[in-house]
Design brief:
By secondary structure, the protein is α/β, with parallel strands linked by helices. The chain is about 35% helix and about 15% strand. Helix 1 packs across helix 2, helix 2 runs antiparallel to helix 9 and helix 3 runs parallel beside helix 4. It is globular, with a radius of gyration of 18 Å. The structure holds S-adenosylmethionine. The site of S-adenosylmethionine has 23 residues, from helix 1 and helix 3.
């Protein structure tokens, strides 16, 4: 049985979740009425919403191709979401069949759907986990079984940390995860910023309120320096921390926002760990 089989008409209403709202925005099928309503309200707020989701997903794909090209064969993808086209394991294993991937998400539906599509793939799995609790993720039996953290590994934190409020100390959590990476490991990250819309702007307040009420989730966009601080102890690879569509765009297919990259409202970067971090 897949999790979609559990969406029984007349069954208990499911509150929206960021994973399923994002799936709706990407045109996926793993979402329920509350997610669709929240997604529609976000689109009403900004006609760019769907494109931002697509451009973020495209960054993830380019980052994984870059990392595979850099010799990375192990990926820890936290806040991985619901499997959709261009999954990390598909891209990585196409380029290097021995690539290993562990997906981690706080949403049980995302994890169940991931496990469904990963059935029969011995080098990839999905686990329930919370980025706010790195110890639980790093100590998880599946992580320990599939990933050898003495070998080059990429940590992916793509469009997840803006769901973690400062009270939950996201920088400390990321530092703990980065500390577990070996020298030669990478961090790929994208994050909504306050550079275009101030936190107190109407759009930001309505978005924050919508996630809080409909998905019981905090949204905290951050300033550029606050986003850059997640890379402490690492060296950003070229072109640094840039708007999503500016990160190593495919010259053959520059994609939406190529001429107006700030419309993505999201910064993205990939960094390498050249020396041990102080843990
Ligand atoms: C916008 S989606 C991004 C999915 C994927 N990383 C991508 O960029 O295509 C954000 C994901 O973060 C997950 N998430 C939110 N809070 C989380 C937490 N505390 N720990 C782990 N995952 C979380 C959500 O469930 C959702 O699947």
């Amino acid at each position: 049985m897949t999790t979609m089989d559990m969406a029984v008409p007349g069954g208990k209403a499911r509150p929206a979740t960021p994973a399923r709202i994002y799936d709706y925005l990407l045109g996926g099928i793993h979402n329920f009425p509350a997610d669709q309503e929240a997604g529609r309200r976000l689109i009403e707020l900004s006609a760019d919403t769907r494109t931002i989701a697509q451009v973020n997903r495209a960054f993830l794909g380019r980052a994984v191709r870059y990392l595979a090209g850099a010799g990375i064969r192990q990926f820890l993808d936290i806040g991985s979401g619901i499997p959709t086209q261009g999954n990390v394991h598909e891209i990585a294993q196409r380029l290097a069949p021995d690539s290993r991937v562990v997906y981690v998400d706080i949403d049980p539906v995302a994890v169940a759907e991931s496990l469904d599509i990963l059935a029969g793939n011995p080098n990839a799995t999905a686990i329930l986990g919370d980025v706010r609790n790195p110890g639980q993720i790093l100590g998880h039996a599946s992580v320990r079984r599939l990933l050898d953290l003495t070998q080059p590994t990429a940590l992916l934190l793509v469009a997840v940390l803006h769901f973690i409020s400062d009270d939950d100390r996201p920088h400390a959590a990321v530092a703990e995860l980065v500390d577990a990476l070996p020298v030669g490991g990478y961090l790929a990250l994208s994050h909504g910023t306050t550079e275009v819309h101030a936190p107190e702007s109407n759009g930001n307040l309505v978005t924050t309120d919508l996630y809080k009420r409909q998905a019981a989730t905090a949204v905290q966009t951050r300033t550029r320096p606050e986003v850059e601080r997640f890379f402490t102890g690492l060296d950003l690879v070229e072109p640094g921390l840039v708007w999503l569509s500016e990160w190593r765009p495919d010259p053959e297919a520059p994609g939406p926002f190529a001429a107006t990259p700030e419309r993505s409202l999201v910064r993205a970067g990939v960094a390498v760990k050249r020396t041990r971090t102080a843990g």
